[in-house]
Amino acid sequence: MVSQTDNSYNATSIKVLEGLEAVRLRPGMYIGSTSTRGLNHLVYEIVDNSVDEHLAGFCDQIGVTLEADGSCTVEDNGRGIPVGMHEKGVSAERVVLTTLHAGGKFDNKAYKTSGGLHGVGSSVVNALSSNLTITVKNGGFIYQDKYERGNPAMDLVGGLLPVIGKTRQTGTTINFMPDDEIFEKTRFKEDDIKSHLHETAYLNPNLTIIYNDKREGTKESITYHEPDGIVGFVGDMNKNNEAVTNVIYYKGESEGIQVEVAFQYINEFHEDVLGFCNDIYNAEGGSHITGFKTMFTQIVNQYARDLNILKDKDINFTGTDVRNGMTAIVSIKHPDPRFEGQTKTKLDNQDAARVVSKITGDEVTRYFDRNVDTLKAIIGCAEKAAKIRKNEEKAKVNILTKQKFSFDSNGKLANCESRDASKCEIFIVEGDSAGGSAKTARNRMFQAILPIRGKILNVEKASIDKILANAEIKTMINTFGCGFSEGYGNDFDITKLRYDKIVIMADADVDGAHISTLLMTLFYRFMPSLIFEGHVYVAMPPLYKVMPQGGRGQEEYLYDDAALEKYRKTHKDKFTLQRYKGLGEMDAQQLWETTLDPERRVMRRIEIDDARMASEMTELLMGNDVPPRKEFIHSHATDAEVDA
């Protein structure tokens, strides 16, 4: 028997989203998020289109300007978007700007390689901008078109763009204003954009990128031109480290795929291997990285045996042993790349793995045959890593097995009842007082509470044995269930994670911020997949509670000083203000309402857009080198939000 409620699903329930409506309704599907990361991605999409013109051989200069009014302008001297009549009865430019999956990227005659794989870049930016103006220089004339939230703002005569001038130049200029109805913030983050543009210049040694910031307080002009290419890229990444080898570079082409690799070893116990396909940074790597790592490990192990450094009874070095101290850039140009998602975080082409492996095998073998001293230095790094790894494994056995995970076994963890990891979340809370309130306030079915005492060890400065001996870190390792030392050992398995959300819940003061930073450093250095796969959050407890006097309104929680200032302007009646100095000052009901209730709470998910910058900032701010940290803090002091 079918109920009346079931009958409500009929033909009228099927919705068809016309034009760019789908992008505005679900922007995260196209740009990852509506946070600052997604906002900056708009710039990258337009820049990537200009870079594709460079790769095709028709552009050698790109200008990126953050305008004083908050908009962004990207200009190139490429061929200019076609403006002639399309078979759809309108200018080809308008088809490109208003139709998903429309563009020259699907025609190998127009672009042999392209970063803008899906043909949605320009149209998505158009859809997510309150207004966009495009100016095209093509065929001796200057054309212009305008849009508002993805919709044409100009009527075309005969379907063709109006001519606004004459020129001998060619190229495309796009100015767009991010839509404040879509994005949480509409101010571009200049550091991330500059890093992206600098990377692009390294990957394209014949390209010049001119960056200008005309906004108040951040006015700046930089020209990026890197004729040394990825060799300079690697050298720049290692400029503050002790080098073990020179930068080693090779390139090759097979099956229509071009491969460029540069790597160098430094005297540090970590690896940094970055992958790019058609100039797009692949944060999660992919097949090209797999091909490089697998073949490089095989080569080093074979040479280690040929040189009798590895004996018959010895097991091979692991991949992480071999890459100990390595900084590498693997950049390929692929005629038909397949990525996982529009934001292109992971390359999926298996032919890329095959080609990179083949070229690496040929070129690295040729280099090592001619540079035995360098080879021995690299094997030395692997030997050192293997020794440390074995000591790690012993330390883990001796330390971690003494504290087996069991619910409430250590008297600190208050676990949840559910064992469905996809529904469970754990809150890491500093202090017994806040921990006690949280345990009372939580939903026991799916929320676990793990109190920690004070500030954990700064893992950026500590040795592995001290890290593993730290009581709070041991507790977290056992509680999460997925292991430790990702990238340095073999026991990390993200599929064993017991909680979908790991929430750092600290006081909204300097000490709370320090605790959050120490925890994020631990996760980033030793369990980075927790962050890359979106499991780490920071709770945002309110700073204030306002209580109107005389029953003239509802009590409200305010999360920052800006919200308080807005409340003062919009509420003229008297009110009582309560300032929360710490989570421990809230009772269980208040903590549930403000910080734990999934329906009402505010949380920030920790994301990494630029792995190179994240690694550099972690080392700078949490490492041993004090002068650069002081310089950074001094130069960025005006960026801080000071709690008065």
What's the architecture of the largest domain, going by CATH?
Answer: 2-Layer Sandwich
Helix proportion of residues, in percent? 25-40%
CATH class assignment of the largest domain: Alpha Beta
Count of alpha/pi helices = 20
Proportion of residues in extended strands = 15-25%
Quote the CATH topology of the largest domain. Answer: Heat Shock Protein 90
Question: Mean of residue pLDDT?
Answer: 83
Major β-sheet profile: 9 strands, mixed
Number of domains: 4
Low-pLDDT regions: 1-17, 104-108, 402-411, 636-644
* Assembly annotation: single chain
| Distance from first to last alpha carbon | 64 Å
Query: What is the alpha-carbon Rg in Å?
Result: 27 Å
Q: Which structural category fits the helices and strands? A: alpha+beta
Strand tally is 22
In CATH, the homologous superfamily of the largest domain goes by the name: Histidine kinase-like ATPase, C-terminal domain
* Shape field: flat
